[in-house]
Amino acid sequence: MSFDLTVHLPTDRMPNPQQWQAAIAERAFPLKIDMDFDIVTLRGWLPCEYQGKPGGFEFYYSVLGADELRDTGIPEAAPCQIMFSTHAPKAEFLSAIIAAAVLAEMTGGMLMDSQEGRTYKGAEAIVWAKAFEKTYENPAIVPRAGKPGGPPCVPRPGLGKLFLGGVFFIVLGSIMLLSKPPPLGSLVAIASLAMGVLGFVACVKAFWDGKKNPQGRRDAGGLNER
Question: How far apart are CA 76 and CA 40, in angstroms?
């Protein structure tokens, strides 16, 4: 699935690639966009580098007419529309996030996140982009559904390990119950059987929690696709 963002701004404030890159650097983002392109005519992939790694996003420039502005509720003063589209890989995802946020902030425009149905203006866009960067630097705090500030995902133990652990302790307990003389053998066997049962219960609970809240599970590579 793609991740799509839109920036709306006054047409006369659209920067050239060199100005855009300078603004990105001034805001201390480790992103470099390819500056050899025409803002108006490019309709497709814009190569970038994030922390020295290949990234990029699809870029589309357009100017909305009066009817489109009225239908979408976009201010008449911001008819210029830049669409960003990317996918899950870290360098691509953050390339689009940062480039869109900086463009909105430097032009006094507004950034619209269609996934969350939210709009960011001015410095809000930069704060939003910085929050996404932090979640990638520390994957243990990647929020559910990729929402900065949301409750973090709690890694769940592997269901396979829980299942195998339960089988191991039940088999061990059964063998000891049959082969060891009481009372010590019986006590150890019962304890082993109890551990096996607890393992199965934990396995079922983890599976059920995952069914109830699938977005709580995250891939180690980054944010969930939506």
Answer: 20
Please tell me the predicted confidence (pLDDT) of residue 224. Answer: 31
Tracing tokens 């269901």 back to the chain, one arrives at 159
For residues 90 and 38, which has the higher predicted lDDT (pLDDT)? 38
List pLDDT tens digits, range 157-182.
444 555 666 666 667 666 766 665 55
Q: What share of the chain is helix, strand, coil (3-state, %, to 5)?
A: 50, 20, 30
Tally of CA atoms within 13 A in the half-sphere of 39 that contains its CB:
16
Answer positive or negative: Cα dihedral of 221, 223, 224, 226: negative
Strand order in the sheet with 118-121: 31-33, 43-50, 53-63, 80-86, 3-9, 110-113, 118-121
Dihedral, 103, 225, 54, 33 alpha carbons, nearest 10: -10
Q: Angle 90-107/17-26 helices, nearest 10 degrees?
A: 100
Domain boundaries, the chain: 3-146, 159-216
Q: Look up tokens 């390339």; give the residue.
A: 95
Complete DSSP assignment for 44-97: EEEEEEETTEEEEEEEEEEE--HHHHHHHT--TT--EEEEEEE-SSHHHHHHHH
Coil, strand or helix: which one is 173?
helix
